[in-house]
Structure formats: structure tokens, C-alpha cells
Amino acid sequence: MEKLYFVDPRAEVLDPDRWYQPSLSLVNKLGKLIEESGIMDIVSAGDIVAVKTHFGDSGTTRTLRSVFIRKVVEKVKEAGGKPFVTETTGLGMTRPRNTALGKLMIAEENGYTQQTLAAPILIADGLLGFDSVRVEINGKYLKEVHVAKAIAECDAVICCTHFKLHMQAGIGGSIKNVGVGCTSKQSKYDVHIADYPKILKERCTKCNKCVEVCPSNAIKNFEVDKSKCVKCNGCLEVCEYRAVRVNWLSGKDVSDRIVECAKGVLTVNNNFAYINFLLDITPHCDCHPYSDVPVVRDIGILAGEDIVAIDSASLDLYLKELKTGYIPQQKFWEWTDPIGMLDYAEELKLGTRKYEIVRL
Ligand code: SF4
Ligand code: SF4
Fold first, then answer.
1. Enclosing domain of residue 235
2. Whose C-alpha lies nearest to ligand 1, atom 6?
3. Element (H, E) at 135
4. Is there an atom of ligand 2 within 6 Å of 213 CB?
5. 3-class DSSP state of 94
6. 223, 81: one domain
7. Ligand nearest 185 Cα, by number?
8. Measuring CA to CA, how many Å separate 189 from each of 11, 40, 90, 179?
9. Ligand 1 centroid to 202 CA: how many Å?
10. pLDDT digit string, tens, across residues 61-107
């Protein structure tokens, strides 16, 4: 039975005669959660510590507020660690979110800077999103995972996850933040797409755009050379004639691959602790360039050291809250299987689905 710690965002009035009660702030409750959960025990003096989060895209409005990440950074420093805040590039080559430079501009636009976070920001998979450590795994789907280099090299990771729904994984929790968010482009491609891209000769106008965007010169005579392709999806992004075709995956095919990628990440670096923020639970992932309204009321923040337990508890708390009927909404996207994802994560020994919640 894995112990998880929980704080509630509701500002119960401790003393009705006093309006100034900073202890009721969720930021301060987060500080207490970090202290009492003991998650900073994974940090030793002098450790380089990644505080992994998601900066959203240009237009996303419900990502984790920077004050929460700043509080985590503060606690890493108190534990003697040297924190940096990190995120990886997105799949593709041309949108701002797909390179480190664009991602840093998005971070600034959404309020994440060295000044607001009190720590430097580093894009973990490098300038174009290929800086990684390759690890072999013997998965049902994947044989290798490309772990973002800064995640592989740092001493500890405090994984800060905005828990929300997800169109392919069902839920976007810690497993997704690790399996997708801590890998480089090649593994993001493997999670979402089966096989290499193909160019349809009958549609191709030979405009050359795919050749120009390809980072590995893998396109010769308007054919993809699989031995050179590094799986960036840039060719699909730039083709205006729908001549580049890929085999997109969905639902359980994606969520099981995410679990296998998480296994790869944790094989390279298993010194992780997790904080799931069950706040602003939107129907979509933060990589969308917008945020829909939350589907339930804010639930709270969970902390612990077991990736499967924390996502299992988050899902259960969400389903319980859903029953209150705050906003009538489907449970999760109908073609997804978040419970199957958690079962597969347990089967791969990433953690346990059995947990106990300690309410602070
Ligand atoms: S971008 Fe599309 S149309 Fe242009 S050369 Fe490549 S496959 Fe052909
Ligand atoms: S051929 Fe491969 S490496 Fe080249 S742009 Fe397409 S996906 Fe990227």
C-alpha cells in the first residue's frame, strides 16, 4: 500500500475575525504538502534537480501557475539541491513549441521565466529536440526509448503534473508527464505514430518543402529513407498537398506506448518524486493552443513517490468529484482506456495501484 499525501484547495475559514490568513493559500499548502510528504528526501546536498512541468502552448490558459513551480523550486533549494525547471520540445519541426527557442518564448508568454520561477529554465531534449539517451526496453510495442538528455543526466526529478483529461491517454497524469514529457522527439513519434512516413507519388508536387525541413537528409527522390529518418514528423507538418502519410495511433495503442516510454525513462533515472495538481481539470492536454473550461471543481494536490499510485488516486478522486455533477461531462474520451493504462503500468512494475491517502 503506497502512501500519498493530499491538500485541499478549499479555503476553510480558520478564524472568522481574521481576513489575513496566508496559511489558507494553496501555494502555502503546497509547501506544507512537500514538507510533510517527505518527497524532498530524494534530493541530496549538491544534487542537480529537474523540476519537470509543462509550459503549455501559445494560447493555453490553464497550465500550472508559476507560483506553484516557484514553491517547488524553493523546497528543492531548502533540501540543498540545485534546481532547474524543464520541459521538452513537441513533435514536429516548424511550430514554435517544436524547438527549444520557441518553447522558451512560449514559457515566457505564459509567465514562466527565471525571475518568476527563481530557477533557470532548460529544454531537456536540446535545441531541436533530439538530445537523448537511448535505452533498450523489451516492450510489447517499443524496443527502445529516447530519454531527454537533461532528465537522464540530472540527479533527481520532481515531476509536477497538471492532471487533466487527454484525448489519447484518457488522463494526462504523471505517467504521461514522464512517458511523453521526459522523452525526445523520436519517442514522441513512436508513441503517436506507427512506422515511418510515406510519400504518395500521385499527390506529390515536388515542391521540395519536406526535403528542406528534414533534419537528417532522409528524403531522396521524394522517398523516405528509413535508415536515415529520425522520426521528427517535420515532413508531414510542411506538406500542403497531403502527400506525406503517417499511420496515427489512438486510444489504448497510444497509452500503452506511453507506459513503455515511462518505463524507459525510469530505467535510466529512477530518482523521481511526483506532485499531481488536480486543479483546472480540462478536457484536453496542455499542448493544445487553448484551454477549455474545467470539467469538475478543483480537487487538490497529491504528492508521493509512486507514479502508478499517484495517477490511480488522481483518477479515483476525479471520478468521485465527477459524481457531484458540477458540470455534466463525459468521464473521459470514449475511445481511451486510462484504467487499462494504469493496469499496464502496474504490470510493467512501475508502481502499485494500491494507495492510501493522508489528508493534511
Ligand atoms: S512537401 Fe509534399 S508535395 Fe512537397 S515535395 Fe514533399 S511530399 Fe511532395
Ligand atoms: S523523413 Fe523522417 S526525419 Fe525527415 S522530416 Fe520526415 S520524419 Fe523527419
1. 192-248
2. 210
3. strand 132-136
4. yes
5. coil
6. no
7. 2
8. 43, 33, 10, 12
9. 11
10. 999 999 999 999 999 999 999 999 999 999 999 999 999 999 999 99
CATH code, 216: 3.30.70.20
Ligand 1 centroid–CA 189 distance in Å is: 20
Q: How far apart are CA 51 and CA 45, in angstroms?
A: 16
Residue 182 shares a structural domain with residue 326: yes
From the CB of 234, is ligand 2 less than 6 Å away? yes
Cα(109) to ligand 2 centroid in Å equals 29
Taking the C-alpha atoms of residue 282 and residue 31, their distance in angstroms, rounded to an integer, is 24
Nearest-atom index, ligand 2, CA of 236: 6
Q: State which ligand 2 atom lies nearest to the alpha carbon of 234.
A: 5
Whether residue 206 sits in one domain with residue 114: no
Is 123 strand, coil or helix?
Answer: strand
How remote is the CA of residue 225 from the centroid of ligand 1, in Å?
Answer: 15
Q: What domain count does the chain have?
A: 2
Render pLDDT for 253-266 as a digit per residue (tens, 0 to 9).
999 999 999 999 99
| 335 and 255 fall within a common domain | yes
Same domain, 183 and 285: yes
